[in-house]
Design brief:
The chain has 2 domains: 227 residues, P-loop containing nucleotide triphosphate hydrolases (Rossmann fold), CATH 3.40.50.300; 72 residues, Helicase, Ruva Protein, domain 3 (Orthogonal Bundle). It is built from 13 helices and 5 strands. It has a 5-stranded parallel β-sheet with strand order 2-3-4-1-5, sandwiched between helices. It is 56% helix and 9% strand. Helix 5 packs antiparallel against helix 6. It is α/β, with parallel strands linked by helices.
Length: 309
Amino acid sequence: MNDVLIELFVHTDEYSRFVEFCDACKRYRYIGLCYGSPGVGKTISARHYANWESVMAYWNQECQTKALLKEISRGNAVFYTSPVVSSPSYLERDIAKTRGLLHKAAIERAHRYEQARLERLLSRAEKLRDPKKNPDGYRSDEAVKAEDAFHEQRSRAMRVAYTLPDPTALLIIDEADRLKMAGLEQVRNVFDHGGIGLVLIGMPGIEKRLARYPQLYSRIGFVHEFRPLTKGQILKVLHTSWRPEGVHLPIETFDDDSLAAIVRITGGNFRLLHRLLSQIGRILEINELASVTPPVVDAARESLVIGTV
């Protein structure tokens, strides 16, 4: 993933488990159900798995390089966020449009390759067919074959958009709790006719709700609980180079008491950890402090709204 485009992603043990879960859904073409409390990292993990920040950066024209096009054109996972309100027909169109981002990238890359080859064949054919440049052979079999190769390649280049299949192998739908019964039926229809894997991400309890829809629930092959970070995982994260964007907190500035306070306050919630570290960085900057102490952590804690995150 292009680190210039997005904030540095931290690979946790929970993310590794999530990757295994998504890979299984993709490989076996199953529906997978992922649930977890708010803030534990479900959405950011799903976007990272699908390399969706890079996909959006390319199509939003934030970075349209050949290297990035090559990167996203190799992708086969699509990330989609359920709208708050939608009809089944809108949902079908919107999912197709989102999947189209990967398909268009694959088509554009293939088209560039075919076009470059076409230009090389044209140059060769024109050279061989030119009586001035090739007076003794412009009517030769070699010249005829070169011209035929050009026409064949031109026909192939024109067919790229129609012959290249949709690369989507896994559709990840975030905020699946928003989907009503009709929306869930539409998603099931997409799965049944798409030949792809499907991952539904939601809050705890979504598994009980989906149990009321046997036609969909019977297709669920894997269930994954995205758990909060453990104490050891939080400490591991803090000892990496990861920091919230724009926050500079060398690990040497944390003492044992400060680390213990951070673990206690965040309780394994990644979103809360992100916010707390941002506040700690702000307090250090304002007060021109060089190290993180328990009073600094407490001061950062007081500026946060901590409850159901």
